[in-house]
């Protein structure tokens, strides 16, 4: 599970992270709770894992960051509650943005599935409180919403043409569209070609 702490401060960590790096899992999956944030200016989803004693960033994302990379001793690995292992490549002194605040913190670079895992070291250092009842995390008087990536919380949304458009046979064109359930969801994922203006919707060739 990814957190059983409701309305109380997170416990103090007695051991240095290098003595035993651990997380609940390499991926939050259906049970994970996430928040939207950024690391060194790069937007990403962050898994809040109160079962982790270390904060991590995925290797491919770390390569894009302009942080100060610190090499760690060889043969340091990350362990999960189920016995899985992942290689640790080093550490980064990174600026982590959650809500409206920025925090400077050293994070480990590892072969994890999620872009970032926020562990107890980060949550306790900056006095975060996790409230599972309200699905939010609080710090400095600010309430940051958490959301689940579970299938039951995910919704499909149709995109409708903004205005009636006649498309000739064997042709393609760009038209503007609007989500059918506009205003009824908070997060959306779309696969959009980078070379096409995001003001329109790409329509496949008609038959």
CATH architecture of the largest domain: Beta Barrel
The first-level CATH class name of the largest domain: Mainly Beta
Full CATH superfamily name of the largest domain: Acid Proteases
- Taken together, the total number of domains comes to 2
Q: Strand sequence of the main sheet, in spatial order? A: 2-3-9-4-8-7
- Strands, count: 17
- First-last Cα distance: 49 Å
Judged by helices, strands and strand pairing, the structural class is mainly beta
Provide the descriptors you would attach to this structure in a database record.
6-stranded mixed beta barrel; Cathepsin D, subunit A, domain 1; globular; 37% strand; mainly beta; 207 residues
Detail the topology: elements first, then pairings.
Blueprint: E1 22-23, E2 33-39, E3 42-48, E4 56-58, H1 59-62, E5 68-70, E6 77-80, E7 85-98, E8 101-110, E9 116-118, H2 120-125, E10 129-131, E11 136-139, E12 142-145, E13 147-148, E14 159-161, E15 174-175, E16 177-179, E17 201-202
Parallel strand pairs: 1-6, 3-9, 4-8
Antiparallel strand pairs: 2-3, 2-7, 2-13, 4-9, 5-7, 6-7, 7-8, 10-11, 11-12, 14-16, 15-17
If you had to describe this structure to a student in words, what would you say it looks like?
The chain is mainly β. It folds into two domains: 1-25 and 154-206, no CATH class; 33-148, Cathepsin D, subunit A, domain 1 (Beta Barrel), CATH 2.40.70.10. It has two helices and 17 strands. The protein has a six-stranded mixed beta barrel with strand order 2-3-9-4-8-7. It has a three-stranded antiparallel beta sheet with strand order 10-11-12, with no helix packed on it. A two-stranded antiparallel ribbon has the order 14-16. A hairpin with a 2-residue loop joins strand 11 and strand 12. The longest helix is centred in the middle third of the chain and has 6 residues, at 120-125. It is globular.
């Amino acid at each position: 599970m990814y957190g059983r702490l409701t309305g109380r401060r997170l416990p103090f960590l007695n051991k240095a992270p290098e003595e035993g790096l651990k997380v609940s899992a390499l991926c939050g999956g259906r049970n994970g709770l996430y928040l939207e944030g950024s690391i060194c200016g790069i937007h990403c989803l962050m898994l809040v894992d109160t079962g982790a004693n270390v904060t991590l960033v995925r290797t491919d994302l770390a390569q894009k960051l302009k942080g100060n990379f610190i090499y760690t001793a060889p043969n340091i690995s990350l362990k999960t509650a189920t016995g899985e292992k992942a290689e640790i490549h080093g550490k980064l002194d990174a600026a982590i943005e959650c809500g409206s605040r920025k925090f400077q913190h050293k994070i480990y670079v590892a072969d994890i599935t999620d872009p970032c895992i926020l562990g107890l070291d980060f949550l306790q250092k900056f006095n975060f409180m996790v409230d599972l009842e309200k699905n939010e995390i609080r710090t400095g008087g600010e309430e940051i919403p958490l959301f689940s990536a579970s299938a039951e919380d995910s919704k499909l949304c149709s995109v409708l043409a903004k205005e009636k458009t006649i498309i000739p046979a064997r042709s393609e064109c760009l038209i503007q569209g609007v989500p059918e359930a506009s205003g009824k969801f908070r997060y959306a994922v779309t696969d959009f070609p980078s070379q096409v203006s995001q003001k329109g919707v790409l329509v496949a060739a008609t038959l």
